[in-house]
Amino acid sequence: MSTPSPVTVADAPHPTVRWFLSLVLMTFLAASAAPTPMYHLYQQSWHFSATMLTLIFAVYPFTLLITLLVLGSLSDHVGRKPVIFAALILEILSMALFIKADGVDGLLFARVIQGLATGIATSVLAAALFDSDHHKGPLANSISPLIGLAAGGLLSSILVEYAPMPLHLTYWGMAGLMAVQALMVWGLPETAKRQPGALKSLHPRIAVPVAARRAMLEIAPANIAAWALGGFTLSLAPSLITAATGLTSSLNGGIAVAVLTLAGAVSVVTLRTKNAAAVLRLGTATQACGVAVFLVAINSGQLWLFFLGFLIAGAGFGGSFLGSVRTLVPLAAPHQRAGLMSAFYVMSYLAFSVPALLAGTMVRKVGLITTANGYGMILIALAAVALTGQIRRRNAACPVK
C-alpha cells in the first residue's frame, strides 16, 4: 500500500482507514483490560493484599492521565503516524514486561508503560479518526474503547480459564497483533503536517470556561459515580464475584467487564441523537438502578444478578458519559474545548482510579463484601445527588405554568 503525500486534513472520508484506526484503538483498550481476569491468580501466586492489587490497577489510569495531558497535542506537530507507531511499540514493550513479570514490581512497571502507551494512543487516534471521517470518526472514537474493553476482558478470561500459559498467552497474542498494526500504520495517509511548537505543546492546559463551570459541577456526581464503578469493576469485580458466590472461574470476571462495557457502547449508539439533558438524566437513573441490583447480587450470592446489575449499570454509564460530554462541549468556544475536555478527563480518570484504590485499602480493614456494599451505596448516593440537580435544572429551564 503506497503512502500518499501528507495533507492537513482528510479531503474525503476514508472508511478503510477509519476501520483500521478503530481496530487499533480497540486493541489498546483490550490490552488494558486483559490483566483483569488474571489479578486473582497473581494475588494467589505472589500473596499480595487487595490494596496492592488496586495499586497495580490504579497506576495505569494515573499514568494514562498524565500522558494524555502532556503528550495529547504532540501529533498535531510531528504527524499522526509516528506517534501511533511509537504508542504501539511502547504497548508491545508493556506486553513483554507482563510476560516477564515475576512479582509485584514487574506488574507495576508493566502497567506504567501500558498507561504511557495508551495515553499517547488515546489522543492521537481520536484526532486521526476525526481526520479520516468528520462525521463517523467521533462516534467510532466513543464506542471503540468500550468494545475493546469488553473484548479484552472476555477473551483474556477465556484464555486464562481454558488455554495453556494462562498468565502469558493473552499478552503474546496482543503483542503479535500490535506488531502487525505497527507495520501497517506506515501505509496510512498522513493527515497532519509537521509544524513547529512540539515542545511548547507538552505544557498541560486545563481550564474550565466560565460558561461551563456550573454545568461541570452539576455533572460531577454522576460522572464520578460512573467512572468509579468502572474502576471497581476492572480491579476488584473478579475477586468480589468469587467471594460472594464461591465460584472461582476466571471467566466470570471477564464476562462482568464485557457486559458492563458492551452495554455502555450500545447505550452510546442508541442515545446519540437524543437530547443531552434527557440522556444524562436517564443515564444517571439507570446507573443507580444497576448498582442497586449489584448490591442485591453481593448479598444473595447470585451470579446472574451480578451480570444483570452490570448490564443495567453499563447502560447507565454510557448514557451518563454521553450526556455529560454533550452537555459540556457546546458551552465552550472552539479554542476553549481542549482545556475543558482535559479538565473533564482529569475528573474522570481520578474517579476511575482513586476510589478503587481506597476500596482496596478498606478491604484489609472490613473485608471485601462490606467494602463493596459501602462502595455501592456511595455510588447510589452520588447518582441521587446528581439526578436531583438535573431535575432542578430542567424545572428551572421549563417552569410549570
From TrEMBL:
As for membrane topology, the entry says: Multi-pass membrane protein
Instruction: Give the superkingdom in one word.
Output: Bacteria
One Pfam entry for this protein is: MFS_1
Q: Which Gene3D superfamilies match?
A: MFS general substrate transporter like domains
GO CC annotation, single: plasma membrane
Identify a single GO molecular function assigned to this protein: transmembrane transporter activity
Segments passing through the bilayer: 49-71, 83-101, 107-130, 142-163, 169-188, 224-247, 253-271, 278-298, 304-328, 340-360, 366-387
Q: Which UniProt keywords apply?
A: Cell membrane, Membrane, Transmembrane, Transmembrane helix, Transport
Task: Name its cellular compartments.
Answer: Cell membrane
Record InterPro entries: MFS, MFS_trans_sf, MFS_Transporters
Name recorded for this polypeptide: MFS transporter
